[in-house]
Protein 1
Amino acid sequence: MPVFASCGEALLLGLASGPACIAACGPVLVPSLLTERAGFRPHVRYLSAFLAARLLGYMLFAVVAWELGMLASMLPAPRMLLMGAVYVLLACILLWYAYSARRTCAQPCADSKLVSIGAKKNRGVAGAASLGFLTGLNLCPPFVAAGIRAAQMGSLVAALLFFAAFFVGTSVWFVPFLSLGCFVRNQAVITVARMAMVLIALYYLSMGIAMLLGKKVYGY
Amino acid sequence: MATDVRTLPLARPEPRGILRSLLLTLPILIWSLLMFFNPGSSTAPIRRIAAAITVLFMTSLFFMMMRTRSTYRWRRIFFVSLGILFPIGFIYNLILMRGSMGIPVEEMIAGRTPFCFMPIPFLILPAALTRTLVFPGSIASSSHGIAAMVALWLALTLVMGKGWCSYACFFGGIEEGVAAIPARAKIRKLDPRLRYVPWAVLLAMVLLSLAIFEPAYCMWLCPFKAVTEYVAARNALGLVQNVIFVLLFAGLVIVLPFLTKKRTQCSWFCPFGAFQSIFNKISIFEVKIDKERCKPCLLCQNACPNLSLSKESVARGETLLSCMKCGACVDVCPRQAIVWHIKGTQIAWKPERARLMFLYSAWALAVMFGGSIIAESVYTILHFVV
């Protein structure tokens, strides 16, 4: 298949499955964005870091998908294990992020840095990038569909290009998240966002552990 | 600084005359009779007796509200009764229909899960993005259907705002009843940051419901599953879910209300309550504080069962967004500085008229919604007894 045709297909797949992508990333993205400072620029910076790391996750997955040929994600057992591990990691990062976000400025302040997870101020790992990378590895249905197509590509470069185009298609749907910058930030909003992060982390943690143990969530 | 309450002049309202109170109660009596004795209603004797008891109950309480000019204690009798009676009728029906309170997956797949109002906030985003209702119930079923419940909720909410949580919610009465038991609160110092938790639960559950395509709150966190309908546990995770329901119920609905004399589940956890708070912005009825009359004794803050008053809000002359319009603060204020208010009018401009307008709306809807539940549960009890 010509490269441009497969890229077009990936782009359309990304655009079509955007709502599923933002639904999957929403629980991570919305509370973490709400803990950042208000304004357009901090949110552009956050989303840039988040999406860049997500692209990295995509590319890594493309390499694995192509190298394995028969995609690991197609097999239920390794897929469950991978998802379980990603969920547990995501939960840990979210908890760490919620803890680190306690220093966020509720009022306008000189500190323009994004929340960085880790003990030392401004020296930890960028929270947005960590979350972006892990959500990039999250095996949501459109992502698995893209992985299967990438595995069928003739070369590694084609698989990477396929995932890059898929990434561009899905990323368009993330632009509305910039509007969260317009919301007023005060201590109440930041506290609510941090508490929500903890709850979401607990959910991911329980799901991740259940998946690692090979348990099914009731009814499914 | 808090003023010594003993130095404040007590200005309790004079009781209204019996005849005038009866006259004011007449519209509610007629409404109740229309609701429960309309031509389409059942003529079975036990049904008629249950309906008569309900009419008498609801009308008497309204009469007492008119006669004494106080709201909270009479509303509480209705609300606690609703909270206790709802599970009785509901569980009886469940056992009659399927022999158990646990709902099996097959029933969910068949769309036979009864719908309560709690999942409403969690349905909005998935419906908007995918035009799908992420609830395993029927839309058009005559009883427990999604459409009927959403329509009722919308009507009540537009009128009462968060008053829903004091006049319509069939869960809050249990903890209000438990909170009324002890004479004094054992825990008095409450962290104000706990007020943020319902908003966090709302945010987290709305986002998770969108991500996992099911009402996450109902699946994992609803304390009232313990006394209504839970997921039938067939594996370890199902068991974990049910343990969470029971622990949350025991902690938030029984133990903490007993220790704090507050509605802790509503104040510190309920995401639907947080969602309802938003509608306080559009409801025309509100509770206001006349700053000229107010000597900040903070009796109102102590009396509020929902932590909807703080020193700062009292100083501003208003309640917090989470006010449930239960009337506890209005009734307790020794200077009658806290008043029912209609938006757009001056504060303290004929507050009793504002109270009457609110109560007519709220009680008419309470008769229609809560009254029907009470009548059904009374029928269930009579069915067993007689």
Note: The beta strands of chain A are 116-117, 125-126.
Protein 2
Amino acid sequence: MRFHPKTRRWAGVALLALIGAVVLSACDLGPENGANTMRPAGPVAAKENELFAIIMIVSTIVFVVVTAWLLISIFRFRARPGSPEARQIAGDNRIEIGWTIVPSIILFVVLFFTVSYMFALASPPTPPTLNVTAIGHQWWWEFHYPVQTAQGITTQIVTADEMHIPVGAVVHISLVSDNVIHSFWVPELGGKTDVIPGHDNALWLKADRTGIFRGECAEYCGNQHAHMDYTVHADSDADFRAWVANMQTQAVAPATDAATAGQKVFLSSGCVACHNIDGVTKPHPAIGPNLTHFGSRSLIAGGVLSNTPDNLTRWILHAQDVKPDSDMPSFDGSPGSQGNLTQEQINNLVTYLESLQ
Amino acid sequence: MAVGTVATRGRAARKRWSQTALGSWITTTDHKKIGILYIYTGVIYFFLGGIEASLIRLQLAVPNNTVLRPDVYDQVFTMHGTTMIFLFVMPTMAGFGNFLVPLMIGARDMAFPRLNALGYWLVFFGGLSLYASFIFGGAPNAGWFSYAPLTNCTPAALSAGLGSATFQQQAQAAATAALNGQSGCFAPGANTDWWIIGINLLGIASILGSLNFIVTILRLRAPGMTINRMPLFAWMTMITSFLLVFALPSLTVASMLLLFDRHLGTHFYQATAGGDPLLWQHLFWSFGHPEVYVLILPAFGMISEILPVFSGKPIFGYTFVAWSGVAIGFLSFTVWAHHMFAVGLPTVAQAFFATSTTMIAIPTAVKIFNWVATTWHGKLRFDTPMLFGVGFVAMFLIGGLNGAALGVVPFDYQITDTYFVVAHIHYVLFAGAAMAIFGGLFYWFPKMSGRRLGETLGKIQFWLMLIGLNLAFFPMHILGLLGMPRRQYTYPPNLGWDNLNLLASIGVAVLFVAMLIFIINFAKTILFTPANQPNDPWDAFTLEWATSSPPPTENFKTIPVVRSRRPLWDIKHPDKADWRIAAH
């Protein structure tokens, strides 16, 4: 059977509307300094984006040519009353050889670009000036800055959820996991590398402009894979040095009564089982993030929430609702929670933690 | 004498159980019935997998949605992938192969009918054991490729945390265990064990089925049916069978080692004890990439049957279509690490796999050109199977192109493990394999049942599928480019992901409607359409159309003699018979 012309016209209109919807939806490319691979902020992502442009152009040409050929065939050779009999052609070796060779040439040209870009990106143009170790946990990222006197780092920096790098510096990032496989990915700075237990993986990055770029875990790593984000702050040299200087100090002493009370809550409610605060807790193997400069971070809870007193209150009280199955227990007295903090206790605790600049 | 008479009478009065309607299906060794059982099973699992897909898209329709808890979401997406690959496409293709291959090559049955029945029942129970997991302790939840160590659980670490009263003590015990090199329990539940059991039952079934296909095709062809006159669907089934026989052992080994790690205290995948998580990935993908072609080669075969018939022409370049399949088969064993470009392999190794990936695209391109050329100068009849056939060619082209993009290694560093990959696999397996399966169902349904599926509903289903799949899967390319990783149970707003996700969810809703229309069409046909189809309702070329619809138990009254690639064309056009023109 054949559809009525009116039906076909409506089908055509519907199809155009669909294409329009896809195009319009794609126009929203997310915020400035987000996770858009097509808006590179460094040489690695820029090179990878060049290859995207190349493969996109080649693919589009191939798609248009083959689809046009198919559509012409459909309209021209569709059976109509009086249309000629099908020609019984079983093939033609010359044509076959032709269309084996043509795609081979196209594909090998693309392969040439692929391989040359691969080797160009395999090692940075200049030796790295900053070394960072990124540690993937279930489900948050920890960042260690080993001692590097050239960068003013004289004692190791340990932080979480937020990584700082100076603009223009080639950064070497060692990737460590002692649990499952994660993948380190900052889309606007460059492609991803998996973080695999027992493998000394690493990658290099460079930011060409200041900004805050979204980082994500790209390898499925369990229930909260969706909530394993971080930010990479590309700072000016001065800002980076100030950050480094601050991060090497011990935790500030509580300055107000509320903060002093909050510190007591911290020490007595079980927080120390998993968290360290340099100068306050005895250093021990920690399961959770180091909180020495907690108040200076922009994200908490493995990138789930921005660091505001309200969010922090919600996180400490109801961690298992905010991020089910994470190692952080709730403290709201619900089944499975590790305590039931009073309103006063939680207020003081939040005041104390936010004061840790 | 008297006793014998009584016994005979008893038999006549009371039918043997195996002759009842249900019993005959359960005890059958007829390749046609087994084939239909496989197809029913596959299509039922297709609807289950489709419900899982709908749940996924419901959860992802808007940011920070809470329809599914994360642990439930993980089970749903894992079972969606596992179902669609192992319980829909593989059984359905095996079903078409079972039904069609003996008919196409002029045989009376498969070479080993009882082995064939065993294979089906292993699939039946393998599928049940995978789905029983939902009731017994939770479904598999680590993705369809079950990467270790996320699926691993070392018994030592399990005991380290046990017996400690409080959370702090448990946490410290776990930290101590980690420091002592005993960490490694990331999947304590039975979820992964169900996956291993189910997958291995299905794997045994596939190996049995494949050996059966290989022997049947090599030994039971009708007189005159040389390998080079065999229908292309039989060719592709043969290549698929060889792939399975050589690829599946790798999966068996991988999953058994995982089982040992989980229950016998070995450390094959545990880095702290000298094992290596990457061993899993190498073993899995050396099965997994041939597997991708196991899923798509039979679809290539179906399309290579449908397009010529509805164009009224022989396939263009038979030899090239057949041998490009063989080339794909060999090359598919050399490309596995292109799933692993981000794991930190040496650059030279990555260059090798980029090259082999480039090479496997060439025979695929040759196939697409031959299909389009088959329609050229034809007399095209657009019945529903042809719509699916042409739709397959156009949509699979997209799946080929975005697949080639994934082989551009530095670009792959950006888009691997993102929604771009999800877009690719769905253009290959939904727009590819599933479209071909529906084309095949509409094409061979008259042969299987004697009834023809409704054309109007079929065409509506096709157009809804075409629109729905592009709406659902095309935006996923852009989501990947905009930095959305796959397998996230939710996502934050305002990253440019909101509208595209909503669009994809609407697309799945359209696909859902298309499937409902198929169910209506199927029910209507089975219940109300008379079984009156002639031997050859489509004016086709191959031997399955030379016998009645449905065929008798023995398939053919006399085994036909074959003189060319299109035996039915020769009979219908004696003056223009293929064997008169060319000596193939």
Note: The mean pLDDT of chain A is 92.
Protein 3
Amino acid sequence: MADYTTSELMVSRAAKELRNGDVVFVGIGVPSLAVNLAYRMHAPDLCMIYESGAVGCVPTRLPISIGDPCLVTGSLAVVPMLDVFNLYLQGGKIDVGFLGGAQVDRFGNINSTVIGDYRKPKVRLPGSGGACEIAALAKKVVITIANSKRTLPEKVDFVTSPGYLRGGRERESLGLKGGPELVITDMGVYHFDPETREMVLESLHPGVTLETIRENTGWPVKSAPSLKETPPPTAEEIRIVRDELDPQGIFLRKGAQG
Amino acid sequence: MTMKDAVGRFVRDGDLVVMEGFTHLIPFAAGHEIIRQERRDLTLARLTPDLIYDQLIAAGCVKKMIFSWAGNPGVGPLHAFRRAVEKGTPRPLEIEEYTHFGMVLRFMAGASNLPFLPTRNYPGTDLTSVNPLFKKVRSPYSDEELWCVPPIHPDVTIVHAQRADEDGNTQVWGLYGVQKEAAFASRKVIVTVEEVVPASVIRSDPNRTIIPGIIVSAVVPEPFGAHPSFVQGAYDRDNDFYVAWDAISREEAGLRKYLDEWVHGVPDRTAYTKKMAARREALQADRQMCEPVNYGF
């Protein structure tokens, strides 16, 4: 078996969520690597959009931030941020958005605002940025996050970006379409039950047990009847990630989790 | 006009000030001059406060911040911002929080002289319960209820750009961010540029003009004025500095030392640039020219 890191496994799994021709709202870290991997492997017609306004990007170096100048050079279009949010996102043109955060709860709500009370925060986090609108307005959302009781609590301290709220039909009843489709952690992959909208474990990464997952998740997590093993990255995927996408190991060799 | 004169004349204590630029073209030189002139009780608005507002907060210039993402992009938290919010030092910081889309719509509402703008965003988020300025409106054409944001009307907006003519007709290429909307929403506009060019250069390529001279109060030639952020076609982002800022700003003393050396310790951006000659050389952009287009008729 090829040697690979957990982050590389997450990148490979996230890349499989993308289809050729998808219009993807890209973030930095694991999402950026996943989208660029999919583009090189099976989705050459994928269109990358960054919230900074660069559309159809072909970055020749690993973007350090979502506003890296390498996203502009050679892109198909550069548009004002008003257009990014009004025309592309609210206009329904984004197929997939990637999100992370400090906390994700059992219904896929994301907190990137504050730990503790908003007025008297224990930890003040950066805030929404474009995350809330991506969660609300993209056709589907893929979430990457570490798997621990702290990062996957039963209920987030603050809903920055809406998932399925309190579950069931609440999201739809408020007029929101889409919603989180998949949560990829460093231990496993979860989808959402179509009725209850609760996170359900669908695969374990190689070497991880159900007990480990339960010890590291903030609620008694359910697992799919056909619980599988997450497919490890192929030798070709590892080669592309290491040699072409992140040759300096900026995101992957230092244990970054997106 | 010099930066010293422009800030001296157009930025007052207690003003609502916007210095925009989304990772690109952040007007750091203007921010440093505001710190040198010791402006106080400012309300600062910006999508991403970035290092520039972290420095203004640490220098004690800021009473309130209106924002949507307060981090060091690609690196980590903004330590001065966090100290002000979590511990109230050097002074408590009032915050008013949106999302990027919400901030962009606030600028657009201000620029368009409208009382609000609606969006399909925000159902289910807790942001609307901690910020009472989010309000709901019912569509007069359907049963839909939509969340709205109010306009913002800055006293002064400062933007940095590749070039402008003497009258302030300003051209930008690369990431546009929200500079056009912020400028149009503002009572006064200061444009700082890498290069002041003859009007004939602007007129040779009018599609690239994002801010017209008719709304500009001052034009300041300020090469390297966006460092450590970048200017497409001029210099790259100084990512080493963004990474270094994490350690510099982690303790108040370290941050104070930085301000003493690089802000108070230099009279202007020219001196700052001279002190940083080797960095500037290393950050120089490659040449990648576009195909000319024909504006003839």
Note: Residues 3-40+153-283 of chain B form a domain with the Glutaconate Coenzyme A-transferase fold (CATH 3.40.1080.10).
